[in-house]
Design goal:
By secondary structure, the protein is mainly alpha-helical. The chain is 63% helix and 5% strand. The relative contact order is 0.06.
Length: 459
């Protein structure tokens, strides 16, 4: 672990000095200045440089700081390209100072030939750890875990266990649990450090072992790992094979990154933006990610507009409906979006088998009914005033407004819960562009209710 930074980039004077040196290309004093910063701040500096300047600065920084800053960079900031631009020997040196999970994340961003060049210059042990982790699929517990852990055999005494703990602890960064395994490395439990230290030297370790309630298989989705660790307040969780063999651990700092990434992905998908687009992506990537969903939205909007064309004669006769149409459609969209956001969040926080499988749609339908009735009564009142002050307007107008607005709010709230719930039960991410389809549905229903009722009651 690196020493705590004495300064940070948020200090105005320091930030201005750093970026002045970056602009001037004066990297020699910049290297000395950055040595006291946190790796995350150094990562921000690297992200602001051109590739040639990045390579020069990484070469000038202390190895440990450079490697940690590289690991702190976002994938969208082309950290893989930076690693590939370094000499293979330099890349191997940087990766060798990182935990195997962080090193694997970086190597995974390289092309196969680039991976081979860097791994060939690493120690056989480090390269082997990275190759084993690369075999696991992305976004699974296996790809998230580190093989660096403390595991002690169950047949030891407390004194022997402490001696083994000291030996292993010198090679493991920040371990929070002491795992206990048998001769085949099958996980038997864990031993609290305080119990181990306070136990009599001859106490058999098996007497101190506590069972582990939560383990994860290597193929479990990383989002589920994050949900488990958050629910049970775990600082680390063991990763075990189906036969019970301990192969790694996942720590809370890695899960924090996962939760942030998954929430960002869900937020983008909820807005109809592909999860392939990174927040800091360039405009070309943004266009490629957004244009397909906008095209789908254009198609659904055209379908909604066809309803307006179908009722063209109604609008010609009752011109004021053109001013009411966006109100009815817009209120439905707002109601549906509220229901959609709550339902997607409810699904994200679901508590496994104890979470009720039904009721969300019914609840949102009741909410939509009450809200629709309240808004409809308000619209009815406005319509009644219009009928009173404008001779010739049909007295049925308030009822059209009440039924159209109230009905669309009810439908929108129900669909805002039904769409993501149905997608979730089909095994599809409920955040995937639900809002695009919901908006089209509320527009179509709003236009159909208003114009259909107007045709039936006002003409």
């Amino acid at each position: 672990m690196s020493a705590a930074p004495t300064r940070h980039l948020k200090h105005p004077d320091l930030r201005e000095r750093v970026y002045a040196l970056v602009s001037a290309g004066d990297l020699a004093p910049l290297s000395s200045l950055l040595s006291d910063l946190h790796p995350s701040d150094v990562a921000d500096v690297l992200a602001s440089l051109e590739e040639r300047e990045r390579v020069a600065l990484v070469g000038a920084l202390p190895v440990e700081l450079a490697s940690e800053a590289l690991a702190e960079m976002e994938e969208a900031e082309a950290r893989g390209d930076l690693l590939a631009a370094l000499a293979p020997e330099k890349g191997a040196e940087l990766l060798g100072t990182l935990d195997d999970d962080d090193a694997t994340d970086l190597v995974a961003e390289l092309k196969p030939e680039e991976q081979a060049r860097v791994l060939a210059r690493m120690s056989a042990e480090d390269a082997g750890d990275i190759r084993r982790l690369l075999r696991f699929e992305e976004e699974t517990a296996g790809s998230l875990m580190t093989t660096s852990l403390v595991a002690i055999r169950a047949d030891l005494t407390a004194e022997e266990a402490i001696r083994d703990l000291r030996r292993q602890g010198r090679e493991v960064d920040s371990f929070y649990n002491v795992f206990v395994v048998d001769d085949a490395r099958r996980l038997e439990g864990t031993v609290p450090l305080d119990d181990l230290i306070l136990a009599a030297p001859t106490t058999p370790l098996r007497e101190l072992v506590q069972p582990i309630d939560i383990t994860v298989p290597p193929d479990l989705d990383q989002e589920e790992v994050g949900r488990l660790m958050s629910r049970y307040n775990l600082v680390s969780v063991p990763v075990v094979q189906p036969d019970g063999r301990l192969i790694g651990r996942i720590t809370f700092d890695d899960v924090i990154d996962v939760i942030e990434a998954e929430q960002t992905e869900d937020l983008l998908l909820l807005a109809g933006v592909s999860d392939e687009e990174e927040v800091r992506a360039d405009w070309r990537t943004a266009v490629r990610a957004r244009l397909p969903w906008l095209s789908i939205n254009l198609l659904t909007a055209a379908i909604a507009s066809s309803i307006v064309v179908f009722f063209g004669r109604t609008i010609e006769s009752l011109w004021f409906l053109a001013a009411i149409m966006p109100i009815v459609a817009g209120m439905g969209g707002s109601s549906g979006t509220q229901s959609l956001a709550v339902t997607v969040r409810r699904i994200a926080l679901a508590r496994g088998s104890f979470e009720p499988r039904s009721g969300a749609v019914a609840k949102e339908a009741v909410v939509g009914l009450v809200n629709g009735l309240a808004l409809g009564i308000f619209a009815f009142t406005v319509g009644w005033v219009v009928v009173t002050v404008m001779p010739g307007v049909s007295p049925r107008l308030p009822w059209v407004l009440l039924l159209a607005l109230g009905g669309n709010v009810l439908i929108a709230a129900s669909m805002g819960a039904l769409i993501p719930t149905a997608l979730h039960r089909m095994g599809v991410d409920p955040a995937i562009a639900s809002s695009v389809f919901l908006t089209a549905l509320t527009d179509m229903c709003g236009f159909l209710l208003l114009l259909g009722l107007a045709s039936a009651l006002l003409l």
